[in-house]
Amino acid sequence: MDRPDATFTLAYIVFALCFVFTPTEFRTAGFTVQHMFSEWLGSEDISFIQHHIKRSTLTLLLHCCLPLGYYIGMCFAAPEQNLMYVHQASPGWQVYFAFSLAVQLVSCALAFYWSRRGWSNHPICRALGAHALPQSSWRAVASSINTEFRRIDKFASGCPSARVIVTDTWVMKVSTYSLHVALHQDCHLTVTDSRQHSLSPELNAPVQILTITVASINPRVRPFDIRLKSTEYVELQEKLHAPIRNAANVVIHLTMSELFLETFKTYVRMNAVYWCPSGQELEPCIGCMQASASVKLLRLCQADGEGECQQCYCRPMWCLTCMGKWFASRQDQQQPETWLSSRVPCPTCRAKFCILDVCAVE
């Protein structure tokens, strides 16, 4: 890493990835297209459609600048390559320069084409045109969306590069280069997939992400997928005029406690197993009286005499689900990020334990 060109290459790759796939740290620091060019883009709250037409165009131009920016940076990072004079550079660098320059010129030509006829050639405008009445244009649809977006009762979820917005009439998905739009009365929403994550980077808590396909009966509107947290599912349903179908029979966890219970079970299955002595029969769980007792508390997280956890001498009396519900019920409901690392008393003998001390019974 003593070579300047290698150091610059690594730093530029990291910068390019963070600029394209903007992490939370970059957004917090204001290093985004929306923040740096906010004066030219205008207010999203006032002119939502016009803002995203300009934003998507500018984002395309800036992203296409990255290959050429790397070449220009290497002119200074590796002066021995003679990159400043293209005709003296190696054939490989000449090909790269031609490619990066072509990408930049094509993006400029595309942006110029989009801006013609008052941006009517832009993909967002053409998408809006699919919803326009015969004697109207995309501008009437844009005006309707702008008006509804200003209302405070809209549903909005997701990061800036994949936002889901639902107003009284429209379902919209904002992505890096485009904007998908569907009319409430024309579309059908279907839950097609679900992914469970033990920890969310934003909340430091378990989260379930639902994938919902939005399909319109309008043949000019292409189907698109939206993603949101399961805890926002009810709020989305209340904003829509039609029910959401669950074609994949996905189990949707609507509360934080339900999400935590699934995460609790996952962590317990990774812990050590307690082998039940021969001849000992497992009694029904004293919590639900339905399932057999299936967990035993053993102090495994720390050595004796260390930490707050205590040894529990109770025989297996609880099933995994009831123990998880007990664990969740003893938490601070306002601080879900502390649940996994907290300690609670045994529901029978009150000895403190953590999630690492819960062992499945075999």
Automatic annotation (TrEMBL):
<keyword id="KW-0472">Membrane</keyword>
<dbReference type="InterPro" id="IPR018801">
    <property type="entry name" value="TM129"/>
</dbReference>
<comment type="similarity">
    <text>Belongs to the TMEM129 family.</text>
</comment>
<protein>
    <submittedName>
        <fullName>Uncharacterized protein</fullName>
    </submittedName>
</protein>
<keyword id="KW-1133">Transmembrane helix</keyword>
<dbReference type="Pfam" id="PF10272">
    <property type="entry name" value="Tmpp129"/>
</dbReference>
<dbReference type="GO" id="GO:0016020">
    <property type="term" value="C:membrane"/>
</dbReference>
<keyword id="KW-0812">Transmembrane</keyword>
<dbReference type="GO" id="GO:0005783">
    <property type="term" value="C:endoplasmic reticulum"/>
</dbReference>
<dbReference type="GO" id="GO:0016567">
    <property type="term" value="P:protein ubiquitination"/>
</dbReference>
<dbReference type="GO" id="GO:0061630">
    <property type="term" value="F:ubiquitin protein ligase activity"/>
</dbReference>
